[in-house]
Design goal:
The structure is a single chain. The protein is rod-shaped and about 90 Å long. It has one domain. It has 167 residues and is mostly helical. 11% of the residues are buried. It has 5 helices and 2 strands; from the N terminus they run αβαααβα. The chain is 77% helix and 5% strand.
């Protein structure tokens, strides 16, 4: 019984000692994207491509609306209506494929850009952590509670803006 007590006492002491040695910093990645010049440039690039894709989809949709109006015209003969109906089905299929392809392309671009940005940010976060004597840096989304003093986001934002230029 005495051995168990001694082992528990040693474990508690070690835990307290290890906790005292660990300095944790918190980073808000969402703010890095929203508040840094480089993060804003990534967002603008992705949004620009998304806007172009939406414009192209709207053009295809306008063609579909025109074909639907043409098909409803009583002046068309049966053969022309059938041809336009087939064209309409093809346009709808084209639009569906275009939207799916565009979504995939934007997702791929987003992953690529964010992955690239993450690789650029990592050394900066490490540098800030070393300057502040931190042993662990965690993303804010995985932390239930933290003291605001542990948040190093502002320091990382300043360093990012000084070291990383928008592409």
């Amino acid at each position: 019984m005495k051995k168990i007590f001694v082992v528990l006492a040693v474990m508690v002491t070690m835990t307290i000692f290890m906790a005292a040695e660990t300095k944790i910093g918190i980073i808000n990645a969402q703010r890095l994207l929203q508040e840094t010049a480089r993060g804003k440039a990534v967002a603008v690039k992705i949004e620009s491509i998304g806007k172009d894709k939406r414009t192209q989809a709207q053009a295809i949709q306008a063609e579909i609306v025109k074909l639907e109006k043409d098909i409803a015209s009583p002046a068309l003969n049966t053969a022309t209506k059938e041809r336009k109906a087939l064209d309409l089905q093809n346009k709808k299929t084209d639009l569906k494929r275009f939207i799916e392809d565009s979504d995939m392309q934007i997702q791929r671009l987003t992953q690529q850009e964010l992955g690239s940005l993450q690789e650029e940010i990592k050394p900066i976060i490490q540098q800030v952590g070393q300057q502040k004597g931190l042993t662990v840096i965690m993303e804010i989304t995985v932390v239930a509670y933290f003291d605001e003093a542990a948040d190093i986001t502002n320091d990382v934002i300043k360093m990012m803006d000084s070291q990383l230029k928008p592409k």
